[in-house]
Amino acid sequence: VKLLSDIGVIANAAKTPSEAMSQTLDLVCRYTHFPIGHAFLVDRSAQERMLPTRIWYLEDPEKFMEFQAISENMEFPSGVGVPGRALQVKHAVFIADVTQDPNFPRKTVASKVGLTSAFCFPIFVQERVVAALEFFTPSHSPTPDFFNLMDHIGQLLGQVFERQYA
């Protein structure tokens, strides 16, 4: 409840979606102890691929430098990787072991830096996905309550995008 409340304050005060996503990544990672959080935007011209941003939470920037560099240079078509799956299915996606997932293009570098689990949820404006936040951890098993919490956070962040579009 505290996390949702804090993100509600961020969503109301943020001047840009980038600011809101950055602060949200920081809070979610600190609350959940996820070492990595990263934001993606939907390609507004194609609508069928996720584009990386330079918006990150990195618990250990030096340790995750290679993962960050690779991630920032990859686009994810609908259905590919964690952000592409969230875009395709239009709800949160969890992968228990990305190192064994045939649809995870960054598995080699993830394995190298000890990342196993991935979680990603979309951000909507009306019925359209406009962005997504992904998180990585050595291991995690989200509960249904966690999925619900992230859905609410996505709705709050969607309001920031709506204000920008208006």
Question: Mind explaining what this structure looks like?
Answer:
With 166 residues, this protein is α+β, with helices and mostly antiparallel strands. The chain contains six helices and six strands. The protein has a six-stranded antiparallel beta sheet with strand order 3-2-1-6-5-4. It has helices at residues 2-13, 17-32, 65-72, 81-89, 107-112, 144-165, and strands at 36-42, 49-58, 76-77, 93-95, 117-125, 128-137. The radius of gyration is 15 Å and the shape is globular. The mean pLDDT is 93. α1 packs antiparallel against α2 (17-32) and α1 packs parallel to α6. The termini are far apart.
Strand order of the largest sheet: 3-2-1-6-5-4
Q: What coarse outline follows from CA principal-axis ratios? A: globular
> Cα distance, first to last residue?
29 Å
Helical fraction equals 40-55%
Q: pLDDT average, as an integer?
A: 93
**Which sequence of SSEs, written as H and E, runs from N to C?**
HHEEHEHEHEEH
Describe the largest sheet. Answer: 6 strands, antiparallel
* Rg on CA atoms, Å: 15 Å
What percent strand?
A: 15-25%
Count the strands? Answer: 6
Structural class call reads alpha+beta
Low-confidence stretches: none
Please state the oligomeric state of the protein chains shown: single chain
The number of helices is: 6
